[in-house]
Write a structure and sequence with these properties.
This protein has 5 helices and 7 strands. It folds into 2 domains: 88 residues, no CATH class; 58 residues. The two termini are 37 Å apart. Strand 1 and strand 2 form a beta hairpin. The strands form 2 sheets. A 5-stranded antiparallel sheet has the order 3-4-6-5-7. By secondary structure, it is α+β, with helices and mostly antiparallel strands. The longest helix has 21 residues.
């Protein structure tokens, strides 16, 4: 894939090829830029690339290809400077990972029942949508005898008890939707 990126140059706008190379084995993308780019442009592209892949990016200069190679490398990973050329700089515009603070709500009897019935119905009807699935299971629930519903209520109570043990200070609060 060789998209053409237009950058203003001293002789007007110039179409310059930027090459993206993917590696299925390593699971990443390398970006090659001509070494005729000014370092300011290379730095800006490296920062945007780092922001996009959410990890640090090292920029190497490959003298043989006359290109800059931008490589996303996780911390501690080493690149082969014989193949890639010398490292010119590294940038990290990835956002720090925030610890997961969300505590899931305990499931109620209906949710437990639906999750139990869902795989069975998906196997019978592979093309069923989620809303259709809920409607069908809702019909099953309404027709279940009280004894069967009581089993699911007890399972929900047990899950609630275990949830309270695991998260003693938990209190459900609704998330506020962002205003437009």
């Amino acid at each position: 894939m060789r998209p053409r990126v237009q950058f203003p140059g001293p002789y007007g706008d110039v179409d310059t090829p930027v090459t993206f190379v993917t590696s299925e084995i390593q699971g990443n993308v390398h970006v090659f830029l001509p070494d005729t780019y000014e370092m300011v442009i290379v730095e800006a592209i490296a920062q945007n690339f780092s922001r996009r892949v959410q990890q640090p990016v090292k920029v190497f200069h490959d003298d043989w290809r006359q290109k800059y190679r931008l490589c996303p490398l996780p911390p501690g990973a080493q690149a082969n400077t014989i193949t890639y050329g010398p490292c010119r700089f590294e940038c990290d515009m990835s956002e720090p990972k925030v610890a997961e603070t969300h505590i899931p709500r305990p499931r109620n009897c209906w949710i437990l029942y639906r999750q139990h019935k869902s795989p069975e119905l998906r196997e019978k009807f592979p093309d069923i949508t989620a809303s259709e699935l809920s409607s069908v299971i809702s019909g099953y629930w309404k027709n279940e005898p009280e004894a069967e519903k009581e089993i699911w209520r007890q399972k929900a109570q047990e899950e609630d008890r275990l949830h309270k043990e695991k998260y003693p200070g938990y209190k459900y609060t609704m998330k506020k939707s962002p205003r437009k």
